[in-house]
Write a structure and sequence with these properties.
Layout (H helix, E strand, L loop, with lengths): L8 E2 L12 E6 L9 E5 L5 E5 L6 E5 L4 E6 L14 E6 L11 E5 L8 H5 L2 H4 L4 E4 L5 E10 L13 E10 L2 E10 L4 H19 L2 H4 L3 E11 L2 E10 L5
Length: about 250
């Protein structure tokens, strides 16, 4: 892959960007490993939802037509049974355009976070057969899927010298507003260190609320989340193996 291009795999006969809801996508590490399957859909009332179609199916991003945005989870989902906080993990407002379009939500896929193996995908083959777009992961940088709400008729232009990116979805939200899904790359910087710190904190919480021996050695699918800007939230899904203290 060259430094100035990004080629997306798409289902045969599909034209990018996709303009009909839902859009189903994943990120490919290039060695047989991938992210989980993801989707984005728009309802008739103008609300949009970004959601994992795999192991984190209890979590979703809600982009309401009122301007209220949040990440929430289904309290009945088995993967969230140990979560003790509010079911609305983040809440923010739709970003306002101030000379530059700000993503309302960003999915981060560092190469070391792409761990779904072929045998795991095969068990859910019917789900994977519905994927429309496969985004190539980068060997050194973080693959980022950004969701940007723009005014109808506005064209997003790449800044000169910017890193490779490619729009793969353009969905009408409500009168005057459109949701764009854009794949791109960003430098990793100190992301790994921050993730390691967050996982250590999660381990302490596990040890305080569970029997560590029951979880020892198990691979846990989780999703870290936080704010890039005041009204720009990120989600970083990954797999982590919990090792109980000796």
């Amino acid at each position: 892959m060259s430094n100035d291009e990004m080629t997306l795999w798409r289902r045969d006969g599909l034209v990018l960007p996709i303009r009909t809801s839902p859009i189903r996508f994943a990120v490919d590490r290039g060695n047989g490993l991938t992210s989980d399957a993801w989707g984005v859909s728009v309802e008739k009332n103008g609300d949009a939802y970004i959601y994992c179609r795999g192991g984190l199916r209890g979590q979703k991003v809600s982009l309401h037509s009122s301007g209220k945005q949040h990440i929430s989870f289904n309290e009945d989902d088995p993967s969230m049974r140990n979560y003790k906080g509010d079911r609305f993990m983040n809440q923010w407002q739709e970003p306002e355009y101030e000379g530059k379009a700000i993503p309302t939500c960003r999915l981060l896929f560092p190469r070391w976070g792409l761990q779904l193996a072929p045998e795991q995908r095969k068990r859910k083959q019917a789900r994977w057969d519905k994927n429309q777009v496969l985004i190539p992961g980068h060997a050194k940088m973080v693959t980022v899927v950004s969701f940007v709400i723009v005014d109808d008729g506005m064209r997003l232009r790449k800044e000169e010298g910017s890193l490779p990116s490619a729009p793969f979805g353009v969905l009408r939200l409500r009168p005057g507003k459109t949701l764009c899904a854009i794949a791109g790359y960003e430098p990793e910087r100190n992301l790994r260190e921050k993730v390691d710190d967050a996982l250590r904190e999660m381990a302490r919480e596990i040890e305080a609320t569970n029997d560590p021996n029951e979880l020892g050695g198990k691979v846990l699918e989780t999703c870290l989340t936080g704010y890039t800007l005041e009204n720009c939230v990120f989600m970083l899904p990954l797999w982590a193996r919990y090792t109980a203290k000796a």
